[in-house]
Specification:
The protein has 141 residues and is mainly alpha-helical. The chain has a domain at 63-131. Helix content is 44%, strand content 0%.
Length: 141
């Protein structure tokens, strides 16, 4: 059995392609033509991960209305609301103070729809700060 020796091209040679010979990707050509402008824009990558501050209060600032309500909880008497929770049944409820502050903040902002409050608990950083990251359902609100 005889083997013929064929010279294989080097892999690096195969990967070297001139930029003019490379086919343009379809999505790049569409997006660049779609947003063509004589003026350069800042880089925009909405899918890029971000490192946000650890505490939402840092983002909101001490003068934000949500921070005011969180501070207000120290001066209000919630004993009447807390006293209504006497028997255990089903899943543990959301903390009544959190739910009260959530409603107070939402009403102060003019938001009275429970479905809108539910949406804001998912998307608005102030609502997420008040709820501690919890997302109560509109039936619960």
């Amino acid at each position: 059995m005889s083997t013929t020796s064929t010279k294989k091209p080097e892999q690096a040679d195969l990967l070297d392609v001139a930029a003019s010979e490379k086919p343009e990707r379809e999505e790049e050509s569409r997006s660049s033509a779609r947003y063509a402008s004589p003026r350069p824009f800042r880089e925009w990558q909405p899918e890029q991960g971000q490192l946000l501050p650890q505490y939402a209060r840092e983002v909101l600032g001490e003068e934000h209305l949500a921070c005011f309500f969180v501070d207000l909880r120290k001066t209000l008497d919630f004993s009447g609301i807390l006293g209504a929770y006497t028997k255990e049944c089903g899943q543990p409820p959301y903390h009544p103070v959190m739910m009260t502050l959530l409603l107070m903040y939402a009403y102060a902002r003019g938001i009275t729809s429970s479905r809108e409050i539910e949406r804001r608990c998912e998307t608005d950083i102030a609502f997420r700060y008040l709820t501690g990251g919890e997302r109560p359902d509109h039936d619960t609100v």
